[in-house]
## 1
Amino acid sequence: SQQGEEDPQALSIQEGENATMNCSYKTSINNLQWYRQNSGRGLVHLILIRSNEREKHSGRLRVTLDTSKKSSSLLITASRAADTASYFCATDATGTASKLTFGTGTRLQVTL
Amino acid sequence: GAVVSQHPSWVICKSGTSVKIECRSLDFQATTMFWYRQFPKQSLMLMATSNEGSKATYEQGVEKDKFLINHASLTLSTLTVTSAHPEDSSFYICSASIVPLSIFEAFFGQGTRLTVV
């Protein structure tokens, strides 16, 4: 399987704390994306980082990419209860950013 | 942003019947759409790539005769689960790419929860 691995599988933090999720993948990629999925719902695109980029920011999100280690991390700062969801990394090897291989996901629980 | 609409959002069907799921790109043309399946508490697994006007490309282990895909127009792809069985119960999600293909995030539908009883 080419599916990536994410850790931790589950993460529980209190509101205001930072949450860090890691993703490892197996093949060379053109880009890596992070998605959020609320329980039983569709996917929300969070951020895309290209293979020649090392770090990217979007609001409270910070994504890093280390292609030598085939890994990425997603940091959510100052978490909120509304951030409670599953987070998936997804890689694309075709250059289209569309045919995606998803990681196993991290279930984040943010409590008040 | 681009919108992908999936219908129905949930469906319950009897074992042995067929179910059709639609995936529409509402404000853009999509030559390529992708169908994913997600079992409870698991990740999304790509089932097939749907190309407008040609046959779909199925991933290894996905039965093309069981999961019929039709992409007859630039805005609509359908997935038909034929002779559904309880083990087909899952969350099915489509995504679409803007024409022409470029480095761009995929737009996902809201998903269809299929329950086969």
Note: The mean pLDDT of chain B is 90.
## 2
Amino acid sequence: EAQVTQNPRYLITVTGKKLTVTCSQNMNHEYMSWYRQDPGLGLRQIYYSMNVEVTDKGDVPEGYKVSRKEKRNFPLILESPSPNQTSLYFCASSPFGEDGYTFGSGTRLTVV
Amino acid sequence: AQSVTQPDIHITVSEGASLELRCNYSYGATPYLFWYVQSPGQGLQLLLKYFSGDTLVQGIKGFEAEFKRSQSSFNLRKPSVHWSDAAEYFCAVGGTGGYQKVTFGTGTKLQVIP
């Protein structure tokens, strides 16, 4: 089944403890992206990647890192999480610009 | 900078009634435009998309949207709403040329009453 897989689905962590949210797609898509969703703010793009080793900042990149070493994987790294990063995170992939994104099921992160 | 405005935060319609969700975008060139739906506790699903050609596009689940360049709008419509359409709907705009900065609106939550 064609899909975008995120792990974990739920995560509670403490301030300052480094964490990684994994994202993998099995559709051989070129483009991948991370979004965070907050009530009243919709989805805001954190980072996106156009190919292996090619990434760029979205609208809210502060406090996040990404890497794209393989085409299928696009992990999101929070090196020192803070409570304002408590959010619902979505990974998405797309074969090309006009095709739209396929989204993962989301990761609900709570930073205490 | 590109942006999307969804002026209606919440809309309530009766089952069987028609639906129109508004979306206005700002983008300097020819945009990609999308509508997504998010059911409670779920990820987002693509309903339809527009890049070029016919300005009235058909999507899944009986939805359609019309691109109006003069009004910078891309409104979503459905002739007859079903209770299962209750969800949150997001309009999004993306750039051309493989540029993947896709900007979403803040969403419209649809409630369907019997």
Note: Residues 37 and 110 of chain A are 13 Å apart (CA to CA).
